[in-house]
Design brief:
292 residues; alpha/beta; Rossmann fold; 3-stranded parallel sheet; globular; binds NADPH dihydro-nicotinamide-adenine-dinucleotide phosphate
Length: 292
Amino acid sequence: MHLIDGKAIAAKINAESRAAVAELQSRGITPGLAVVLVGQDPASQAYVRSKDKTAKELGLHSVKHELPADTTQEALVAVVESLNADPLIHAILVQSPPPPHIDERAVVEAIDPRKDVDGFHPMNVGKLALGDADAFVPCTPLGCQRLLIESGIETRGARVVVLGRSMIVGKPLALLLSAKGPGGDATVTIAHSRTRDLAAVCREADILIAAIGQPEFVKADMVREGAVVIDVGINRVADPSSPKGSKLVGDVAFAEVAPKCRAITPVPGGVGPMTIAMLMHNTIASARRWAV
Ligand code: NDP
């Protein structure tokens, strides 16, 4: 069994990004990322901090807009529009989830699709579905695909089962892996909470990707011997033995599934570190496009 080291692969991608930033800077371009956070959700604050920290470490121009929880829809859209117009900013991300009074879809649609590095704007979703090379692809699915490529796992012709059909992970990942070309060409099944005989569907998979948000849901009897398992889930569960009283687990019951696998990602240290690395990658790609 090979443990796919997401931290090491993310570090390699970040090193490539650092070199790409240096090259762009020699041409007078500094890729600019703006992250907008509304409210004080601690998990969102932590994500925004680490995006900002990584961006700065790689030499990007990084700005954080932390807005109060009672920010109106109009005020938030006004911030997005000012970033759309800012020539120093090539990438805009509004941290999800916003407070309930905000219409997230409308905010995403206010982002200039050419700066939408999260790939959530309908223009980019459509481009991904069409197979356009210039689509911004959501960072977590892009990170999953890159983990497979970097680990030498062939997707061409493989049977892939993606567990979960969200627009953030499951659906874009299914589009990506079924697209033509390297890292794609797979035969992809999307499974979800209405799937009949879910365990049997999962057992069909050469590559099983779990993105459902259910702690340790995927058990050994759902996994074929020799399968590759990518665990996207991040779930905090009680753990009386830890000083914090809780720990992070994935959507896969790692201890029982890992011995059956050809390769598997751990949680934490698998897909998680890839998401931010791919955000930096998308930001640099955007800056390159704006430069021509
Ligand atoms: P969503 O809640 O948006 O979607 C969950 C999907 O899983 C839905 O399609 C749902 O089906 C399906 N599902 C839920 N329960 C079951 C079940 N018992 N059996 C079959 N299918 C089920 O979650 P996200 O896609 O946003 O996130 C999924 C997981 O990935 C979470 O743990 C999240 O924390 C993690 N995540 C990790 C990231 C990272 O950086 N590593 C980034 C983003 C997410 P239905 O549509 O029928 O309701």
